[in-house]
């Protein structure tokens, strides 16, 4: 009972009760029409991070049930979950199983991590299963040794030619030449650690990893709508959540006079 009470204690906060007492997200409708849904949480205070993991659990369960019961197994609109800072939102229950099953329902999950070790710290032995169920992996750069070591092993080796010469001087002088073929990591750990910041490594299932240029976001047609282009485009949560009516001089309103209530 103590453990249960401790887990439910955050729901005794008025602000949290107001947030969770009714459903305004309609998670089960995300696969019916094109929708953008954002979960924005503090990156310094993890007190309420569990709400995001709960929302993802509900999302996957509702959409899988709807895909099976309503649409014959596949949602009409693909639902892609871009889970940024996946290690900082709390553990999503049974994620290792969900990663293997949601794809058949037209749902995908993209886990963004600072280092692969973050996933292992959160999901322990199930981390390898989660990674194994990802059809693609993109490495944007970093220097965490565990990530670099596993990436080096995944990319495999290449064949190189070595040419050695020897010159021995003594009572009799002799020369020697030696040709060999050796295996070398496609990219060693030290090469990955200093990889050019404009490059990335992409690995797709069934395809050899390849080095590619990162996309230049400034060339996208919608770049003008980002805050990086114009600070006035910055999204303000306070302004969005504010319900205070701001009137303008030319606005027209209808005024109703309310009478007394008859008892």
Structure report:
The protein is an alpha+beta fold and about 260 residues long. The protein has a domain at about 1-135. It has 9 helices and 7 strands, in the order αααβαβααβαββαββα. It has a 3-stranded antiparallel beta sheet with strand order 3-6-7, with no helix packed on it. A two-stranded parallel sheet has the order 1-2. Strand 4 (about 155-170) and strand 5 form a beta hairpin. The radius of gyration is 28 Å and the shape is elongated. The relative contact order is 0.07.
What is the fold's blueprint, element by element?
Elements: H1 2-8, H2 14-20, H3 50-69, E1 79-83, H4 95-101, E2 107-111, H5 116-123, H6 127-132, E3 136-139, H7 145-155, E4 157-168, E5 174-185, H8 189-193, E6 199-204, E7 210-213, H9 237-241
| Count of helical stretches | 9
Helix and strand content put the structural class at alpha+beta
Number of strands: 7
Q: What is the overall shape? A: elongated
The helix-strand sequence is HHHEHEHHEHEEHEEH
Poorly predicted ranges: none
What is the mean pLDDT? 83
Domain TraD/TraG TraM recognition site: 78-196
GO cellular component, one term: plasma membrane
Pfam families: TraG-D_C
Protein name: TraM recognition site of TraD and TraG
